[in-house]
Amino acid sequence: MKNVRSGALHFEAKRYLPDGVSMPSWSFEPYPNYIQAGRGPYVTDVDGNDLIDYRMGSGALILGHARREVTEAVKQQLELGAVFDAPTEKELKMAKLIGRSFPSMEMMRFCGSEAEAKVRGVRVAQSYTGRKKVMSIGGALPSDMSSTVPVPFNDLDTADDLMRQDEGGFAAVALEPLATINGLSLPAEGYLQGIRDIATDHGALLMFDETTTGFRLAKGGAQQFYRVVPDITVLGRTAGGGLPFGAFGASREVMTTRHAGRRSCDAFAGNPLSLAAGIETLRIIGKEGHDDTNARGEELRKGIESVINELHLGFHFVGEGSMFQLFLANRSFSAEIDAGNCDLDRYAELSSMLMNKGVCLTSSQFGTNFLSTSHDRSVIERTVDIFTEALLG
């Protein structure tokens, strides 16, 4: 695969950007492929190489790249105006769409980013309960955020013990119901319901960060998929149709508490461009559903696991619906604990090898990969073939 142009761009970019990139996870040796365009399940780099894409904008593009209807909706809105610092009808349309899919979000606010929506969601919980501490499970909240107490994912005993040690001290328990901070970690059977019960028993609100799983695992996100309902929900990337977007919501009682949700969000909160992309995306995914895409995810899992078993590699393929990751560990494995103990250098080599053969995975063992509705059976079969070539090589 030729990538001379990518190399030249990276050499110049390092003069202006740390490691030559805006996101550390994009950086790998000798340099990343610089992407020029995307269409459906493919991206094309600046050297003209076509790649099957499983990054999908960090999971934001459930419909694939440059879906025609979404592109047209954004173009039409751009001709009308990008941002107004005033309410628009699209806010109401978006709120109705989200509310129908997430009944737990009786009221909501839109933000300009996922990160802001998480912070606002925490403040709502603190305002409603009159408490300050927040339990951050599996790195759901930034470690430097004040009043957060870290707890491992899938560890009910530690969560319960901390609640009992500081009875009445926790405003909320925040987590990704399917953790993506450390690769991809699935909730153990009964874990989410257990966390739901612990929060309720101790008077804390349960906050699901569904920025990744919302409208991806199912129309109603992980709370529909796993049948566990939180008090506060945070949405993001997929709901924004690939444009910057954040939302947090809860019951009417929680959202109308004095001070709750009444602080201003940033200048791009509810901007009509993101709403245009989001409304069209949610309309389409509501019509097309998730069954076929989740089935393709299962086909990919079975195909790659078959190759791994035939070669006696002992690697671990973790997946749920249209999300997956391959962990390069040759022993008993628990993703949320052991991702850092995997062979990180070998994963980077495998990711680079796959890129050179035409498959674009996340370059980090700590990342997550995603399918879209545009990844049809032929794309999955080609992916498994390329994985086989790479693992044999």
Describe the structure.
With 393 residues, this protein is an alpha/beta fold. The chain has two domains: 4-66 and 290-392, Aspartate Aminotransferase, domain 1; 68-288, Type I PLP-dependent aspartate aminotransferase-like (Major domain) (Aspartate Aminotransferase, domain 2, 3-Layer(aba) Sandwich). It is built from 14 helices and 14 strands. It has helices spanning 4-13, 56-59, 68-80, 89-101, 114-129, 156-165, 191-201, 221-225, 252-255, 272-288, 291-310, 335-338, 344-357, 377-392; strands spanning 35-39, 42-45, 50-53, 107-111, 133-137, 148-151, 170-175, 205-209, 232-235, 246-250, 316-320, 323-327, 359-360, 369-370. It has a seven-stranded mixed sheet with strand order 4-10-9-8-7-5-6, sandwiched between helices. The protein has a four-stranded mixed sheet with strand order 1-2-3-13. The protein is globular. The two termini are 16 Å apart.
In brief, what are we looking at here?
By secondary structure, this protein is α/β, with parallel strands linked by helices. It is built from 14 helices and 14 strands.
Topology at a glance:
Layout: H1 4-13, E1 35-39, E2 42-45, E3 50-53, H2 56-59, H3 68-80, H4 89-101, E4 107-111, H5 114-129, E5 133-137, E6 148-151, H6 156-165, E7 170-175, H7 191-201, E8 205-209, H8 221-225, E9 232-235, E10 246-250, H9 252-255, H10 272-288, H11 291-310, E11 316-320, E12 323-327, H12 335-338, H13 344-357, E13 359-360, E14 369-370, H14 377-392
Helix pairs in contact: 3-10, 4-10, 6-7, 11-14, 13-14
